[in-house]
Here is the input.
Amino acid sequence: MIEIRIHGRGGQGGVTLAKLIATSRFLKGLSVQAFGLYAAERSGAPIQAFCRYSEDPITNRNLIYEPDHVVVLDPTLAGPPIAAGLKSGGWILINTPEAPEQYTEQFPNNAVATVDATRIARDNGLGTRSVPIVNTALAGAVGKMFGFPLEEMQAALEHLGFGGSNLTAARSAFGQVRLLENTSLPAPDKHAQTAEVPGHGPSLIEGAGSGLPQLKTGAWATEQPHRQQMIPPCNHICPAGNNVQGFLNALAKDKVNEALHILLRTTPFPSICGRACPAPCMEACNRIELDGAVNVREMERYAGDHGETDVQPEEVREQTVAIAGSGPAGLTAAFHLARFGYHVKVFESAHEIGGLLRSGIPDFRLPEEAVNREIQRILDLGVDVETDHPIDRESLLDIARSHDAVLVATGQQEQRKLRLGMAGTRAVMPGLEFLDRVNHGTMRVDGEDVVVIGGGNTAMDAARSALRLGASSVRVVYRRTRDEMPAIQEEIDEAQEEGIRIDFLTQPQSLHEEVGKSDKRRCTLICQRMVLGEPDESGRRAPVAVPDSEFELNCHRLILALGQSPDMSVFPEGTEVREGRQLLGLLETPVFAIGDLATAEGTVAAAIGSGRRSAIHVHNVLSGDHVTITEHAEAARDVDVWRDEVIGADTMKLHLFERQAGHQGESLGMARRRSTFDEVHLGVEDAAEARRCLSCGVCNECDLCVTYCPEGVLKRVGHRLEFDYAYCKGCGVCVAECPRNVIFMSHL
Amino acid sequence: MTLQVVTGNHAAGYALSTAGEANRTARGAACGIYPITPQTEIVEYVAKFPFSKGRVVPVESEHSAMGVTMGAALGGARSFTASSANGLAYMTENIMVAGYYRLPIVMVAVNRTLGPPWNIWVDQGDTLMLRDFAWLQFYCEDNQEVLDTTLLAFRLAEDHRILLPVMVCMDAFIVSHTQMETDLPDQAQVDRFLPDLDLKHRLRYDEARTIGGLSWPQEGLSMRLEIDEAMGRVPEVFQECRSAFTEAFGRDPGDQLQTFETEDAETVIVATGTMATTAREVVRHRREAGERIGLVKLKMFRPFPQESLRQACRPASRIAVLDRNYAAGSGGVFWQDTRAAFQGHRDDLLIQNYLAGLCGGDVTPAVIEQILDDLADRTEAGSPAWIGIDEHSEVPV
Amino acid sequence: MSATAGKLEQLPGLPCTEECLLRAGNTNCGGCGMSTGLTMLGRALRDAGETCTLVIPACCGIVTAGAFPTTSYGVPTVATTFASAPAVASGLASIRDLNGEPGQVICWAGDGGTYDIGLATLSAAAERNENIIYFCYDNEIYGNTGGQRSSSTPAAAHTTTTPWGKAEDKKDIVSIMAAHRIPYAATLSIAHPEDFADKIKQALSMTGMRFLLIHSPCPTGWKSEPADSVELVRIAVNSGLFPLYEVFHGLDYKINVEPDGTTDPADYFSRQKRFHPDEIDLEATRKRCENRFNQLRALARINLAPVS
Here is the structure.
C-alpha cells in the first residue's frame, strides 16, 4: 500500500488532488481511498488531504500518520511539520519556483522535488489571482514522481471532468518537475502518536468558551500589503518645488496655518504665486480626467492670505551671504538662507526691493499689499537690504571679498528687440518699462490706440494696463495661435472679456510714422498673416508667412513685450552661467548665478524654485551638510516604500471619487475692471476647493483601507498604517480600495 | 394547599406556572408555546397565568417553541414548555440542543401516538424516541404525580450538579384529560421549595463567551463525559429533592423506581404510567390469591435506574415488561433497557416483552391478567408479544 | 494565550469595541464580505456606545467563532439550529427586557437561514415584533456547505446544485419583511460604509423587529478575486442591481442611493466566475433594474401619512 499526504491551503484543491491521484490508480484496477481532514477551515487555511492505494482491498479507515510521500501545495507551508512521520526513502514534492537544492538542509532525510505549479495555474487561468488552484498541475507533477505515464494522469483528469487548461497545466507540470535525489536516507524519526486519555476538557457549564483565537491567520497569506508613496503630478511639476498635495491636504482638514507652514517650507510667496502663477500644477492635475483640475492657485492664495505662522531662523550661523538682486529668486534665496541662520544681505539697484514682483506685474493682478506683506516676512528674518546699489563687475568682486558666498539674481534685464523702425521714439516702448512706469504712476495713454506685440503675461499685463489708463483701443498682435500663447490662460480670457482684441497669426513687419498729425502722432504698423508650420526647437509649431497677406494697423503707441534675456555684463568675460555651479574660481568665495539669470524660465515660480535650490546648495557648501530638496520640503511621510515615480490618472481609481464642481472665486465688476487697477480676482471665501484634491499617490489618511479591511487588522496609529501581519490573510481589499495607490501587495 | 378536581393537563399547567412565578425574585420566567392535542390545555393554562416577571411567547411551531424556551434559559430564566407526539418530533432538533447546552428546561410531554396512524390517543413512542438526548425522563401515572414530578423536576434540573433538562410524561387523555382530585400547593409553598435559578453558564451581556463553537473530538468527548457524570449523580440528587419536596409539601412525590410487593416476588411486572396503576391492582388481587408476584413501576427512565431494578427483582425468576411503544424492528424500548440491566447479572431470568396498549389501546386488568397467564406458561422468553391483536372487540375504539 | 493575541483583548461590556465583535484569528476566507460587515457593525456599536449578544444559526457566521473553547467573537454569542435564530433571540431579548439589561440581541444569519429554512421563524418573530435586530449577510449561496443555491441566489448563477445556472430570480426578502409592517427594514452594502453606519444607528434608535440585509460578497462562492469584494458590491449598488433603501413600518420607503447612470452591470457579471457572460441577458438585466427602481421610486413617493 502507498500512502500520500497532501499539505495545502483551503481553496487550492488539495482534496481534489488526492482524488486525482486515487483515480489514476483506480483506473488501473487498484483499491483506493482519497479524503480530506475536514474542519472549519476556509479559503487560505492550512489543510491536509490524504490518498492511499493498494493492490489489496484497503481496510484502514484512519488518517495517514506515516506517509510514503508528501505533496506540498504551498511553499509557505514547507516547514518541519510536513515531514512528520514521512517514511525513509519517501519524497517531498513542493509547489515552489525554488530549486529542490533550497530544501536540502531542511529535509535531509528525503528526496525533494519542486515544480512551480502556482505559475502554471496562473498562466492557465485556474482559480483567482490570490488563490490559484494548483491541484491539476500538481496531479501531473505527482504522476511524474511516481513514474506514471502522462496519459494515465490525463485519463484521471478527464475521468473527473477536467479538460482544457487543466490538462495543459498537468502536462506543463509533468514536464517541469525538478528532482534532487539525496544520497543518504537515514531512518526517519518514529512519529510520536500518543493518544490522549479522554478526560475533562474545557467545560461548557463551568463557563468555558471565551478563549482568544489561537490561529495566526497571517500564515494563510501568500501576499502582504505595504504602504508606499508616489509623487503627485502637481508636486512633480511645480517649478517652485511646492508640496502642493501637502498644503491642499492641510487646507482640506481646515488647517490653514499648517497649509501656510507647508508652503513656506518651499516658497516665501504663496500670496503672490496664488495670484500670478501660471499654475502648471493645474494642467498636470489628475482630477482633469474626472471633473476638472483642482484650483490650486486659489488655494495657495487662500493659504497665503489667511494662514498665520511664525517663521524664525532655525539657528544662528556666523557666515554671511550676499545676494545681488531682489526679485523672486534673490528674495527666495534670502528667505531660506536666513532660515538656515546665515547673515544675508541683499543688494538691489532700484530704490525698492522686489524686482519684477513690483515692476512687472500690475496691481490688478498682484496688489501691492500682498507683495509688501510677503517681503516683510523675509525682512523679519533679519535680512539686510541695500537699495540703490547696482552690481557691476567691479562691485561684485567687492562683495565677494566681504562675504562667505554670493548669489547673483539679477534676472533678465535685456529686453528682446524687434527691428520695426522708429526705435527710440516715444511711440515705441518695451513692455517691462511700460509696466514699471504704470506702476509708478508716470504713464499716460488716455485716448490712444495701443498695440501690444507679444503673447506672454507681460503683453497681457501691458494691454490690460493700457485699457485701464484710458486707451481708446487696445489690441494685441501675436504671431502664433492662442494655443501657443505662453500667457496664463485665464489672463487671456480676461483680457478678451475686457475688450482687448488679439490678432493671432499676425507678424509685425515694420512701423511707419503717419504724416500730418500734431500732438498725438499716429503710426502705421504693417503686419503679415501667418500659418503654423512644422514644430521648431521650442516644440511649438513655427509660424510661416502667408504670401501677399500684408495689412496695416494704425496706432498711437506700440508696446513690445517680446521677452527678456539675461545681462551677463556683471561676470567676467567667458563666464558660463549654470545654476548651482560655482563661478569666479579665482576667488575663494563661491559665487552662484540663480533665477532667470541662470535658468531663463521666466516665471515667479521657477525663480522661487531656483532660489530655494540655490539656498540649499549654498548651505550644503558652507556647512558641509547634505540636505536634500525632499528632506527640506519635509514631504516624505512614514512609508514602507518610496516610489520615485509620478502617479498618473490611469493609476488612480477615479471612479471611487464623487464628481464635484470646482470652486472659482468672484471677479470684479467689468466697469471697474476697465477703469481701475483694483484687483480683478476677489478670491474664494473658504478652502472647500482643497477637499477636491485627490491626494494622488500620497496617503491623506482617508482610512478607507481601515474601513474596508475585512479582518479589522489594519489600523491607523497616528500618521502610520499598521498592518498586523500575524493575522492579515492577504486578501488585497485594502489595495483594491485605496483610491490613490498608496498600498501595494508583495508576494511572500 | 387545596385539594381540587382537575385534569392532568391542569395539574401540569399549574406546576409549570407556579414554578415560573417562583423565579420572579431572580431572572423571571419565559417559554415558547404551541398547541397540539392532547397537551394544548397546558400551554393555554400557562398563557393565561398572570406572571409577575415572565413572558409567554406564542410561536409558530414546536421547533420555535423550544427555540424561545432555550433563549429564555440562556438568558438565565426559568423556562419550560409542553408538547406531544408529532409536535415533539418537529421540536426534536432543538430538544437535542437544549440537552447538550445543559439548559435546565422542564417540558411536560403528553404521550400520544406518533402519526401515522393518525390518532390522538396514548402511546409512549413519542417521548421514547427522545430518550438519548441528554434529557431526564419521568413517566407519571396520575395527576398528582404529574404536578409533584413537574415541580420536583425544576429543582432537580437546576441543581448545579445536574444542569440537564427534564421531560415529565403522562398518558394522553387517561391522565391529561381525566379529572381527579389533586392537591394544588400554594404559591408560597412552591416559592419555598424552588430556590432562585442561578444558571452559572448563562449568557451575560458583559461576558464575551460563545456557546456552541465548533469542537474537536477531544472537547466533544469531554462534553459528553460531563453529561454522563451528571446523569450518574441524578439518583442521589433526586433523593435530596424528594426529601425537600416531602418537607415542603408534606407529601412524598414518589421514588424514581417504585416497587410493590417485590420483596419475595417470583414474578415481576415492569410497567410505566397508567399501565402501572392497572398492573398494581392485578398484583394486589393475585397476591390475595397467594401468588408471589410484584410490580416495578419505572418512574424515571433517563437515567435508567439499572441498580434499583436489579435490587427490586432479586428474588424474581421471570419478568413481564409492558411496553406501550414499539421501536420498529427491536420490540419495546423499556424491554430493551430492562434486558440490558440484567445482562451479565441474571442470565437465569426470563424476561418477556409485551407490547400492550399501542396506538391508544386500553390496557385493562384483563389484559394484564392475560399477560401474566402467558408469562406463567413460558419456559423461555420469546420475541416481543403483541397483545390485543386478535381482540378488536375488546378495544374500545 | 499568546502575547500577540492578548493585545487584541478588550474589556467586555459597554460599549462594544471595534475588535470586540470580530477578533483577528478567525477562520473566514480572505476578502469575506461577512467579515467586513461584522467589523463595520462592531464600529457602529462602539460609536453608539452599545453592545450586543449575537444569536447565530448554522451558517459561515458561526464557523467564524472557531473551535471551542476559543472564540473569534468578543461578545456573548450562541449558536442555534439552522431555523431557530429569531426564536432563540426572542427568548433572550425577553429575559433582557424583563431584567432591564442593556445591549442589543442581534441575529446574524446567512441567506440560507433567512430566505429558506428560517423564513417561518423569522416571519413569526417579525409578526410578534420581537425586540431584536436581525442581520442577514446575504452572499446569495449556501457558503458553509460549499456553494449550493439558495432562494437568494440570483438568476444565471452557477452553484453546485444549479450546475447549468439558476433559472429563477432572487427572492425579494425585504418586501416580505416589509409586509410584516415591522418598524424598520433596510438594505446595506459594505461598499457604502457611511450609509451602512447610518442604518445601524437608525436601527439602534428603535425598538421592535429591525431587519437589515447586507449584500455580502463571497469570493469563494462567487469565484471572484478576494480583493474585488468591495468593488463588486459597489458595482451592484451603483448599477442598480442591489438597491439601497429603507422601509419604515412597512409603509414609508426611502431610497438611499440612486444608480449613478454610468456603472454598467456587465462589470458585475464579468468579474465573477459564477456567471457565464454568454448566459447573461444584459438588456433584460438593465430593464429589470430600472423596473425595480421605478417600483421603489413609486413606493417612496407614497408617503400618505408619515408614521412616527
Remarks:
- DSSP finds 13 helices and eight strands in chain C.
- Chain C touches chain A through 49 residues (CB under 8 Å).
- The first strand of chain C starts at residue 52 and ends at 56.
